[in-house]
Design a protein that fits this description.
Elements lengths: L6 E2 L3 H13 L4 E10 L9 E5 L4 E3 L22 E5 L1 H7 L6 E9 L7 H9 L4 E6 L5 E5 L6 E4 L2 E6 L4 E5 L3 H12 L3 E5 L3 H6 L6 E3 L3 H8 L5 E5 L4 H11 L6 E4 L3 H13 L4 H5 L14 H16 L7
Parallel strand pairs: 1-4, 11-12, 11-14, 12-13, 14-15
Antiparallel strand pairs: 2-3, 2-6, 3-4, 5-6, 7-8, 7-10, 9-10
Length: 321
């Protein structure tokens, strides 16, 4: 759904873009941020939502239940932020599962206001990370370069939220699995790059919103300059391509490196990587066979398994390989 009407979902960049457009169009906007959670809560600290004065919403702070219940508790535009808490019976009445509790920071922005959103948007456009700090008592906002730390901090009477580039996924191979993986990863707010040196596969690839490059896999990894917020997955079944990417990715800071193939294929792959001079610690980082063991068979099911494992790794829910 278009962010200008009704209810839409999106990452931080989509929320910031929608809020800025609404403010420029003469609407008042509320920014609502998840500050803390207790018990079972669908969205983590740092989750962000923008609500237009006519009820249109982009982003989310729960599973959709709280979004519709908080309207009467929001501060007037231009007034200091309000801290809202849903707990116990109130949380259950609002629809929070298992009695989960949420603490939210709600900011009321007057039409035409900026409140640091322009600086945030410019940083995101440059793929740079910044922190937007809101003083709870006054609503004073400051935007500064991010030097690391959690996505959200609450200290000294202020809420400090990180805005940064999307997690990135480099897929080696533009075949059917690569197409499914790229499309699904986009829905999870990854910035997706597909590396495909083979012209016949590039010609058949048709996924919107995905960066397609003909570069060789090792050059693609080097060009990515991986960080712990990046993933590299090889899908070609061709060691001449897959091994090039893995050799580069496994010695990089990439947070997740996986390779398609059976256990036997991956055992052979690990032996080749050791022969190329990779250390035991580097080879041990390889996720192979890639993906959670959910009995997947079709390319789409395998893509689900891969993204499930990537999500578990990202959320700290699995041990390292």
């Amino acid at each position: 759904m278009d962010a200008r009407s009704g209810y839409a979902r999106g990452g931080d960049a989509a929320v910031v873009a929608a809020a800025r457009q609404w403010l420029a169009d003469g609407h008042a906007v509320h920014l609502v941020t998840v500050v803390r959670t207790w018990g079972s809560s669908p969205r983590p600290p740092g989750a962000l939502m923008a609500r237009r004065d006519d009820g249109a919403v982009v982003g989310s702070v729960s599973g959709g239940c709280v979004e519709s219940a908080i309207a009467e508790h929001l501060p007037a535009p231009g007034q200091p932020p309000a801290t809202l808490t849903w707990s116990g019976d109130e949380a259950r009445r609002a629809g929070l599962p298992c009695g989960g509790t949420l603490e939210l920071l709600a900011e009321g922005l007057e039409p035409g206001a900026d409140r640091g959103l322009g600086e945030v948007a410019a940083a995101l456009e440059r793929s740079e990370a910044v922190r937007r700090r809101v003083v709870c008592a006054t609503g004073t906002v400051a935007v500064e370069t991010d030097h690391g730390g959690p996505d959200l901090l609450r200290e000294g009477g202020a809420v400090d939220k990180r805005f940064g580039p999307a997690w990135r996924l480099l897929v080696v191979g533009a075949g059917e699995l690569g197409s499914h993986l790229a499309a699904m990863a986009r829905r999870l707010d990854y910035h997706v790059i597909v590396c495909e040196p083979r012209e016949e596969f590039r010609a058949a690839f048709d996924e919107s919103g995905v960066e397609l490059t003909p570069a060789m896999p090792d050059d693609s990894v080097d060009g990515l300059a991986p960080t712990p917020r990046d993933a590299v997955v090889t899908t070609t079944h061709d060691p001449r391509l897959d091994d090039l990417a893995l050799e580069a990715a496994l010695v990089s800071p990439a947070g997740y490196v996986g390779a398609l193939g059976s256990k036997r294929t991956n055992d052979q792959r690990r032996e080749r990587l050791r022969e190329l001079g990779l250390s035991a610690a580097a080879v041990a980082r390889l996720r192979g066979p890639v993906g959670l063991a959910i009995g997947s068979r079709t390319p789409a099911e395998i893509a689900v398994a891969i993204l499930a494992e990537m999500t578990a790794e990202r959320r700290g829910a699995v041990d390292s390989a």
